[in-house]
Amino acid sequence: MEIKNTQNNSMSVRIENDDGKVIAYLEGELDHHSAKSIREKIDENIERMSPKLLILDFKNVTFMDSSGIGLVLGRYRMMQLLKGKLVVRNASMHIKKVMRLAGLDRLADFE
User: Fold this and answer.
1) Domain boundaries in the chain?
2) Could you report the per-residue pLDDT of 24-68, keeping only the tens digit for each?
């Protein structure tokens, strides 16, 4: 298992790689200021590990704008190329509602 941290002013991500899956634990505010560096760190791990499962854990996300939708959608596309699966875990009711309105519940499993 490998754990990596990336910190931004308002957002951080801790990534675990283990047995064919990548888990990204997001924390803080996911907005246009933080999304790029978070996206790059997750993508780097996906490219290196070629997982069959990507879990995006939103438990500690306090705010999300449309950049969060883009982050999930882009990771879904990457996982499709790998014939893998995307799971969104621990999203707050508000974040789940935003994601459902964007149609992400048709692309990813929600836990």
Assistant:
1) 2-110
2) 999 999 998 889 999 999 999 999 999 999 999 999 999 999 999
Q: ∠34-54-67 over CA atoms, to 5°?
A: 25
Beta partners for residue 18, in sequence order: 21
Q: Which residues contact 107 (CB under 8 A, 6 or more apart)?
A: 72, 73, 76, 86
Task: Identify whether the C-beta of residue 81 lies closer than 8 Å to the C-beta of residue 47.
Answer: no
DSSP output for 34-97: THHHHHHHHHHHHHHH--SEEEEEEEEEEEE-HHHHHHHHHHHHHHHHTT-EEEEES--HHHHH
- CATH number of the domain at 2-110, please? 3.30.750.24
As a whole number of angstroms, the distance between CA 43 and CA 21 comes to 13
Are 39 and 71 in contact by the 8 Å Cβ rule? The answer is yes
What is the pTM (predicted TM-score) of this model? 0.90
By CB atoms closer than 10 A (0-12, 13-18, 19+), residue 45 is buried
